[in-house]
Amino acid sequence: MKKWLVALTVMFCALSIYAVYHNHAWYGDTIVKVTATQVVETMELEQDKQYVQQLTAVDQAGKSYTLYNTYSDSRAFDQNYTRGDELFIADDHILGVKRDKYIVIAAWLFIAMLVVVGRKQGVYSLMSFGVNVVILVAAITVYVRYEHVSLLLVSAIAVVLFAVISIVMVNGRSQKATAALIATLLGTGIAFSVAALAMFVTKQEGLHYEEMQFLTRPYHTVFLAGLLIGSLGAVMDVAITMTSALFSMQHTATLDEIKQSGREIGKDIMGTITNILFFAYVSGSIPMLLLYFKNGLPFGYTLSMNLSLEIARALAGGIGVVSTIPISLYISLWLMQRKQVQ
After folding, report:
1. Among 35, 47, 110, 233, which is most exposed with the fewest C-beta within 10 angstroms?
2. Per-residue model confidence (pLDDT) at position 335
3. Residue 136 half-sphere exposure toward CB, CA atoms < 13 A
4. Residues 6+ apart with CB under 8 A from 206
5. Which of 336, 55, 58, 311 is nearest to 175 (CA)?
6. Could you give the CA distance from residue 18 to residue 37 in angstroms, rounded to a whole number?
7. Whole-number Å distance between alpha carbons of 244 and 176
8. How distant, in Å, are the alpha carbons of 65, 240, 283, 330 from that of 279?
9. Are 260 and 244 in contact (CB under 8 A)?
10. Structure pTM?
């Protein structure tokens, strides 16, 4: 990477970190820094313990404030504050914590690791990530503003754009990128089709949409849109892994050897990716599972109420991942064979 680009990046990093440490004037609310804390009251609840915390804080002008904060051991809807925390306040009431500096530092750490490990491809990955975020926001905005627009249509267009930008921007226009793109779109389409067909045949029996009850849009449509976008990530990961490995061998191995190696690679990544899908979807339900079990609700009822959608997403994504392996393999072999013939 060119030295001037590294120097420019380091300069932007330093300036942005300095800015978030000295940007109090950018906010409309008063910002104070906690200088001392003390628990002044403790209350025993049925299954929890609650505390009243007295805080001493000062603002940028040196004005002192005495604030009170109530928090519990569970930290369900509250938190305790410590010395050095910066808080937003209004009329001596705490509105929240100023966290922008931590977010900026974490973002720059992510960028640095991506660039150091990936070099040029890391920069392109970062660019594709930013473009994909813009596309996602634009897709959601279009659907929210225009109710007659189909959410599934918007999601499908976004998925195609996600795949094209993520693969082509990082890998360039090459046979490897072509194979990965085709495999990604086919694998994602298979995952979505299987899920939609299963929901149609079973009339959505066993799926509980309680977590979506606040929505005013059709639950099953929102679920399918989320499944479509969610499956894309795992499917694209498998497609790129397979095609990168296969095309790296095209100059040192025969097509039969590449085919055999591709099968072995597919077997190795099949189990890990499907497990990753399961863990990623189920992890978000752990708080609700603990709440249900803590209140003595039956095991089967708890799982069906909280994991039906997550398990459905994981199964559909798993089908997409498994189908992507042979698709990536045979598309890659076909493209290699065409090149040899030419």
Report:
1. 47
2. 86
3. 13
4. 304, 308
5. 336
6. 27
7. 7
8. 45, 21, 6, 29
9. no
10. 0.71
The answer to whether 53 and 81 are in contact (CB under 8 A) is: yes
Residue with tokens 């009822």: 301
User: Whats the size of the chain, residue-wise?
Assistant: 342
Going by C-alpha positions, the residue among 136, 126, 128, 143 that lies closest to residue 159 is 136
Residue 316 has which token pair?
A: 């559909």
- Strand locations in the chain (E): 30-44, 49-59, 64-72, 86-90, 93-97
Terminal alpha carbon distance of the chain: 36
Distance from C-alpha of 172 to C-alpha of 156, rounded to nearest angstrom: 23
What average pLDDT does the structure give for the chain? 82
User: What is the C-alpha separation between 191 and 313, in angstroms, rounded?
Assistant: 9
User: Could you report the per-residue pLDDT of 259-312, keeping only the tens digit for each?
Assistant: 888 888 888 888 777 777 778 777 777 777 777 777 777 877 777 777 777 777
* pLDDT band for position 210 (cuts 50, 70, 90): low
Amino acid identity of residue 47, one-letter, is Q
- What lies within 8 Å, CB to CB, of 129 at 6+ separation is none
Q: Are 242 and 325 in contact (CB under 8 A)?
A: yes
Identify whether the C-beta of residue 241 lies closer than 8 Å to the C-beta of residue 265.
Answer: yes
d(CA 89, CA 32): 7
- Which structure tokens are listed for 279? 């863990």
How do residues 256-269 score in pLDDT, each as one tens digit? 888 888 888 888 88
